[in-house]
Design goal:
The chain contains 13 helices and 9 strands. The chain has 360 residues and is an alpha+beta fold. The protein folds into 4 domains: 2-62, no CATH class; 84-127; 156-270, Roll (SH3 type barrels), CATH 2.30.30.100; 277-359, 2-Layer Sandwich (Alpha-Beta Plaits), CATH 3.30.70.
C-alpha cells in the first residue's frame, strides 16, 4: 500500500532528471521516495531492500496495477503520470482549449475532471487558469450549442470522434467541402488521409494529404459537411502518417501562414527544386521595437539596424527573410498591419502591391 501511495504522490519515480547521470539506480530512488512517504505516515521500514521492492513491483504487475512493459522513464500507476503541479499545467491548457478554442470534446473532458477532482484539497488552486490562450474561434464548433441557438448546420464537427480515429489508424476518408470562400461554387468531394487537427488564429483546421496527389493542405473544419466515409478500413502505418505530418510542418515552418501551395508548387518545394524569394521590408521608428521583439518570428529571418539619428537610435531596421512564393500574400498582409511605418525594399512585386494597398 505504501508503494502504491508513493507512486501516486510521486509519478515518474525512478526517472533521472535531464541533468542527472542516467546510470543511477532507479530502484534506489523509488525506495528513497517510499521511505519518505512511510515517514510521513509514521511507519518505520528499516529493512526495505531492493529485493523487497522488486517483489512488490512484481505483485503490482500481477494484479494489473502496473503494466507489464518495463518503466524506462519512471514508475506510475495506470494513467496517473502527472503530479499536482504538472496536472495544473495540463488543466490550464484544457481550460483554454475548451473556453476559447471551443473544442467540444475537451470541454466535456474538462467538466468531467472538474467534477472528479472537486473533493481534493487545493482543488480551487488546481483549476485556477494561471495560463491561457485567448485566440477565440469565430465559428460554432459544438453541434449542441448550434441547435440551442437555432443555427444548426451539419459540419464535420459532428464526426470528430470518427475523424480522430481515422487519424490514429491512418485511414483514408471521403469528405464533402460544402463551402469555399476562395472559389465560390467550387464545392466537391475529397478523398484524403487526415493527419492532424490544428487550431490557428480564429478557427480549427484539418491538416490532410490527398490520396491521389499526396498534396498537403490545411482546411477549415467548418467548411466540410458532416459527410464522412471511411474508404480504407485497414489504413496505412503510423510511420507513414508521421512522415507526412513532419513534411507538412516543415512546409509550415519555412513558409508564412497556412498556405501550403498548389499541387505543382508543393511538389517542387518538397523536392528542393523551388527557389525562394528574398523579401526585405524597412520598418521605421514608430514600430521598430515591435519588430525587434520578434526574435523568433521566422527561423530564417535577419534583422539589420540602419544608421542612427541624432537621438542615437536607428532611423530604421531592415527585416529580411526568404520565403516560398506561396507565402508572399500572407506576408504582405502581415506587413500591412504596420501601415505607413513599413516599406518594401524587395521584391518589386510586393513593392507595387504595397503601394496599391496604401493608396486604396
Amino acid at each position: 500500500m505504501l508503494l502504491i501511495a508513493t507512486l501516486l504522490k510521486y509519478p515518474g519515480s525512478g526517472c533521472p532528471e535531464p541533468e542527472q547521470d542516467t546510470s543511477n539506480n532507479a530502484i534506489s530512488v523509488v525506495i528513497e521516495r517510499l521511505q519518505a512517504v512511510a515517514g510521513e505516515a509514521g511507519i518505520s521500514l528499516p529493512h526495505y531492500s531492493e529485493h523487497t521492492i522488486r517483489k512488490d513491483l512484481k505483485t503490482l504487475r500481477q494484479f494489473g496495477i502496473l503494466d507489464q512493459p518495463s518503466y524506462r522513464w519512471g514508475y506510475y500507476l495506470g494513467t496517473a503520470a502527472l503530479d499536482r503541479a504538472e496536472l495544473q499545467v495540463a488543466l490550464n491548457a484544457l481550460h483554454s482549449q475548451a473556453k476559447y478554442q471551443q473544442d467540444p470534446q475537451v470541454n466535456h473532458l474538462y467538466q468531467t475532471l472538474e467534477r472528479r477532482l472537486r473533493g481534493l484539497q487545493l482543488a480551487d488552486a488546481l483549476f485556477y487558469p494561471i495560463r491561457t490562450h485567448i485566440d477565440r474561434s469565430i465559428v460554432y464548433t459544438n453541434p449542441e450549442e448550434m441547435m440551442s441557438q437555432h443555427r444548426y448546420r451539419g459540419t464535420l464537427y459532428e464526426k470528430l470522434e470518427i475523424l480522430e480515429l481515422a487519424i490514429t489508424k491512418g485511414q483514408a476518408i471521403e469528405l464533402f467541402r460544402c463551402r469555399n470562400p476562395y472559389e465560390i461554387g467550387n464545392i466537391h468531394y475529397v478523398q484524403i488521409y487526415p493527419l492532424q487537427l490544428v487550431y490557428s488564429d480564429i478557427a480549427w483546421y484539418l491538416l490532410h494529404e490527398d490520396c491521389q496527389t499526396q498534396h498537403l493542405a490545411l482546411s477549415r473544419i467548418d467548411r466540410f459537411s458532416d459527410h464522412l466515409r471511411v474508404i480504407d478500413l485497414e489504413g496505412r502505418s503510423i510511420d507513414k502518417q508521421q512522415r507526412s505530418l513532419e513534411q507538412a510542418h516543415r512546409l509550415l515552418e519555412v513558409g508564412w501562414g497556412r498556405n501550403l501551395g498548389s499541387v505543382e508548387e508543393q511538389k517542387l518545394e518538397r523536392q528542393g527544386l523551388l527557389p525562394f524569394v528574398k523579401v526585405v521590408v524597412r520598418f521605421f521608428p514608430e514600430v521598430i521595437m515591435f519588430i525587434l521583439e520578434g526574435e523568433k518570428r521566422h527561423p530564417n529571418q535577419k534583422i539589420q539596424a540602419g544608421p542612427k539619428g541624432k537621438d542615437g537610435k536607428s532611423i530604421y531596421v531592415d527585416y529580411a527573410v526568404e520565403l516560398p512564393n506561396r507565402s508572399l500574400n500572407e506576408f504582405c498582409f502581415w506587413v500591412c498591419r504596420f501601415m505607413e511605418h513599413a516599406q518594401f525594399i524587395l521584391p518589386d512585386e510586393l513593392i507595387k502591391r504595397h503601394e496599391t494597398m496604401s493608396y486604396t
